[in-house]
Write a structure and sequence with these properties.
Distance between the termini: 27 Å
Number of helices: 9
Largest sheet: 7 strands, parallel
Number of strands: 12
Strand order of the largest sheet: 8-7-6-9-10-11-12
Structural class: alpha/beta
Oligomer: single chain
Order of helices and strands: EHEEHEEHHEHEEHEHEHEEH
């Protein structure tokens, strides 16, 4: 029985120390030094190696080192292998902080001030309070719920949408396709935190933007393939959207000649909204292996039928 990490050198150094201290009975190896492939029962990675089943014939658990698993082709992963996403407080805190920053930046017209600075223009804009903005969080999972709660605490009129019904104190929740139109029609700043599935691929498109109030704004922290990039640019050109803050794009990285780079109404960050700190991420994996060894379901176990 052994554990293989396929990730960064920094993460490998930290995790090696943690495994030696807290799970010494499970040999820890770093890709490509995998030792005897037949002994590997646990693999943690962002992108799995090809021919996974042939390479690791006795693999039992495949861990994603992040919250996402859309980079995994679940159809190529044998059904007996458990797939587990990383869920830990550092990841959540990072996303909450990023969305707070992005929503506040839109509220206070920071994208326009950045453009004015580049134009050497000193001009104050009217200040609008948080209570004047209806912020809608699309996706009420492990990240969406704390994000919505934090925005409510900042004074925004906060609402959320998900496929299934949720109840969040102080947050108006919408559910399913039947209620999505009303949700979008009453959202001034849309925060996308949806997982990438067949249903959410391309969901941020012209039709969705048209259902929002004219001049609304977008914060995209989901997955790049959820966005139809040409539709976003058209919505900005037409004034249907007034601003967009994007942490994910399609493709990634965004090509250097892409027109989004130079738009004054768009802020782009290179998929840094939140990442799993090496220390807490390692302990999350260790605790999940302990749970597995005790015949308990790991935290973050993916529902293979649902795809998340």
């Amino acid at each position: 029985m052994s554990m293989v990490l396929k990730s960064t050198a920094e993460r490998a150094e930290v995790w090696g120390r943690l495994f030696a201290q807290y799970l010494p009975d499970v040999p820890f190896r770093v890709w490509p030094d995998i030792g005897d492939p037949a002994e590997v029962e646990y693999l943690a990675t962002w992108v799995p190696p090809e021919n996974l089943q042939e390479l690791f014939p006795n693999l039992k658990v495949l861990f994603s080192v992040g919250a996402g698993i859309d980079q995994f082709d679940l159809g190529l992963i044998p059904p007996h292998i458990q797939v587990v996403r990383t869920i830990e407080t550092g990841l959540t805190d990072g996303m909450v902080a990023y969305v707070q920053f992005a929503v506040r930046a839109i509220q206070r017209d920071m994208l326009r001030y950045i453009h004015q600075q580049r134009q050497h223009v000193w001009q104050a804009l009217p200040v609008r309070s948080a209570s004047q903005f209806r912020v809608g969080v699309m996706g009420l999972g492990q990240l969406g719920v704390p994000v919505a709660q934090s925005l409510r605490g900042m004074g925004y009129v906060t609402q959320g949408w998900a496929r299934s019904r949720h109840v969040i104190d102080g947050v108006k929740c919408f559910a399913g396709e039947a209620e999505r139109t009303e949700f979008l029609a009453t959202t001034d700043i849309l925060v996308c935190l949806l997982p990438l599935t067949a249903e959410t691929t391309g969901i941020l498109n012209r039709d969705l933007f048209a259902q929002m109030p004219r001049g609304a704004a977008l914060v995209q922290c989901g997955r790049g393939r959820q966005m139809v990039m040409d539709d976003l640019m058209a919505a900005l050109d037409e004034g249907q959207l007034s601003a967009a803050i994007l942490d994910v794009t399609d493709p990634e990285p965004l090509p250097a000649d892409h027109p989004l780079w130079d738009r004054p109404d768009v802020l782009i960050t290179p998929h840094i909204a939140s990442s799993t700190p090496a220390e807490s991420g390692g302990m999350t994996i260790i605790n999940n292996i302990r749970r597995y060894l005790n015949n308990e379901a790991p935290v973050g176990l993916v529902d293979r039928a649902m795809g998340y």
